[in-house]
Amino acid sequence: MIFLFGFKHITKLKIINLFILFFLFAITSSFYAASDNLMDTIAIDSIHIVESRGIFYSNLINTTKIDTITKENNATSTLSELLFYASNVYVHGYGISGFSTSANIRGAGSYQTVVNWNGFPINSSTLGTYDLSAVNASMVEDIYIIKGASSTLYGSGSFGGAIDLLNIPDWDNKLNIAYAGSSGSFNDYSNSLILKLGNNKVQLTSNFQTRNANLNFPFTDKGQDIEYIFKNNCLKSNHFNQQFYFKNHKYNIEAGLWYAEKLKEIPRSSHSTEYDIQKDSILRSYIKVKRNFATSIIQINSAYLSNYQRFASLPSIQANQLLLDIDYRIFINKHYTIELGNFNHLTKAKSQYYDGLINEYKYGFIIGTKISYPKIITNLFFRKELHDYYTIKPVASVNIKYQIVKNKFFVSGDISRNYRIPTLNDRFWVNSSNPDLVPEHGWNYSLGLQYCGKYRQSEIELKTNIFLSLIENLIQWFPTENISIWRPENAKIVWSRGVDAGLIYKYKIYKIKFKLQADYIYSKSTNKEVYVNSETLLNKQLRYCPQHNTKVNLTAQFKKYFLFIGQSYTSSRYIDEENSEFRKLSGFYIANISLGNTHIINSFSGRISFSISNIFNTWYRLVNEYPMPGRTFNINYKIQYNK
Fold it and tell me: What is the pTM of this model?
């Protein structure tokens, strides 16, 4: 059904699109025909085969990967909880687990961060954001954070950055069965069962997870100095993920299915007894077919993505997407790589909020190259997108990484032109949409330094980046003369700038391994020009955007035992555009600790850990009127059989 999408809608493609499709297949055929006559072939490193376009062409100084130990310690956490504790991404949400949460990177809005699952964008086509609480951390193997990601690689909405969620096969696996669970404060219980089966040609992974939590917690109102119970927070969720992988010397086939449902009680505010019930369900499926040639790789990617959301007191919103992408990567030699790509995306949405069934179709092409030498790596990309409704200007990007001292000291620079298309809600919401909206667009710049060193028993890595972003025609919703009705407008130009820095230090003494990871980001995002509303908003910091965000994590391992200590600081945030000092949210410091051990007996292993979050019982809020819980306790356990 997914493949029929390409043929069913082929008549909608314009001449330029048909030409690209023909060119890609024609050049593939020519390489295939010539490959039998080649005396010498170029060895294609396996990493070239498995890496997505975004990772393969990214500037690694701007890229952070969540390490395995951190993921293991947060196996039952949601993606929002993991990023909150383990990265300098600012997670913006309305409260304890299950509330809709999103990521703000480098001072950009949550709708300016792209989230991808195995290369497919999964941001809501209606809202533009992605709910990080809808993903359990152990549902994927690798999590990458790409700061200042380019629209040439990630498409609409990547001003702040991108988060890549990847399922990766373990070709050495024969049989792996794991059961994991957790019990925590406020009657919070999670369970998961993972089965991995296969050999060096076929791998099959099944992952089922469930969570049931009451989540009613006490908090003290600082204004009245009275303790309340934040009620009506119940959360129930189920996730199922199925992955299939096949490979031989010519073909790689990958397929995935992900179904999830969530039921969450949503209190109106911390003091209200009224609440709503949010029901979400997602169905995502994809298949990738990759053909390996002597000097090139062609890959056809197709996906079906379905999202359903409903509040008990409001109508539902249903959005479905069909995606068909073709990528062709040519390895000219060990120094030069060329990328040719074509994409076709169809979105259908239905709701009583919209006037009928909504159809949105976009397509386009990507051309790029990677030039790699021992001292310098350069990536150049160009993207042209054609849209049913909007004229999208071509975008381009370039990033360069130069090795100043061999394997030790590097400098990098990035320039990219980015854009963001208005969401379906912006365009079609009954009585509120604005058909005159134009896409956001602007430029991202960054300059980075990286140092890597090894000294006997220690390793150190230092990264720092200076970044700047200009976003024109920023879309924002404002109340109309009828205050109960809001309407989106192209409101302003936003100037974001700052610095982010990271440190990873590893040290081994006797049999104890230490790892210290520290991240800091300073971000100032202000209104450079205002089209709508008062000019008094000029040079004001954006709402809910902290200027300082720091994370420091220490991990120690001794034989079968481990200890994790995490600390974070988030500075104050304004809750209004006028930057009223008396209404801003205070900064907060959070400390967490986790300790446990792992036992291995033949093919069996067991792991148990005990953690305390918010050790000092800090009172804080991410959003006004929604307090976060104080000190919480959690026990995690895992039993695994590995043949």
Answer: 0.89
